Amino acid sequence: MNLKPLKGQHHVSAITGNAKKNYDFYTKILGLRLVKKTVNQDDTSVYHLFYADERGNPGTDLTFFEFPNAGQTRLGTNSISATSLRVPKDASLEYWKHRFVDHEIEHNDISYESGRATLSFKDFEGQRLILVSDENNVGVASGKPWEKSPIPKEHAIVGLGPVMFTVARLEATANVLTNLLGFRQKDSYTLDGYSVQVFETGEGGTGAEVHVLERNDLPVERQGRGSVHHVAFRVENQEELLKWVDVLKDIRVPNSGFVERYYFKSLYFREANGILIELATDGPGFEGDEPFETLGEKLSLPPYFENQREAIESRLKPLETKE
Known about the structure:
The relative contact order is 0.21. The chain has helices at residues 19-29, 90-102, 170-180, 238-250, 309-315, and strands at 9-16, 33-40, 43-52, 61-66, 79-87, 111-113, 116-122, 128-133, 159-167, 184-191, 194-200, 209-214, 228-235, 259-260, 264-270, 276-284. It has five helices and 16 strands. Strands 2-3-4-1-13-16-15-14 form an eight-stranded mixed beta sheet. An eight-stranded mixed beta sheet has the order 6-7-8-5-9-12-11-10, covered by helices on one side. The N and C termini lie far apart (48 Å). It is α+β, with helices and mostly antiparallel strands. The chain has one domain (9-315): 2,3-Dihydroxybiphenyl 1,2-Dioxygenase, domain 1.
């Protein structure tokens, strides 16, 4: 079957135990725009918050499910162990380092990984994040910062960078990335004494890489507050996504089949070490149910949940997102 290469990161979805603190951190500290306040479509009793560039362009979305009763993450293998966020240039990391000091955000020193300047840090729940410089990027284009962000445009976060997998069996994950998903092995580097393999797809570059760290000396990660739920990679449209549905069916990989998410269309499966991967279409996007100017200000529900709005809202703790 003639499949087009995946286009890079689409979104990363993580877990929080507190939507209000999460909203404050990602909008007021990191300066991202909340482009959609909606619910987890598989459990409408909890919020699903989408933070991104000015309009939630594909490749810029960091999303969170709010599970108030979630326990703390037990770190380990077979996990998405870090999410990178792109900033325009090396000098931006100095800006962010000072900002993290001012706001007492846990962070490390600036370092260089796979030829890029990086700055790792954690949010209030221990979510593992890395700022990565786009100064030398020659791959997938970045997003566009929201003009009302508290962060100066020249230093603002402009999308998702490399996603890190930590796995017990490198060969098994590498096989899925290359032989099934069409990634190319690009590079390798050492992190804390362990080898990391770099894979890229599509145009490559900061927004189209997966970094895979092999650690077979750790327990399997237990997800909770501060962990990543899944990563989604970009496919161009629904026609292309349906081809992937057929491919996974033909090779008998257990999967969700086609899933309607309204803001995009999806397909889910687990790779060989158990990490949940989604393939998602670039569109339709987030402006089908609210205008660009007021994205994220009200609770948005896909049309197929609209008749349940009263019941859904009654189960959610109010979250004020209109500044």
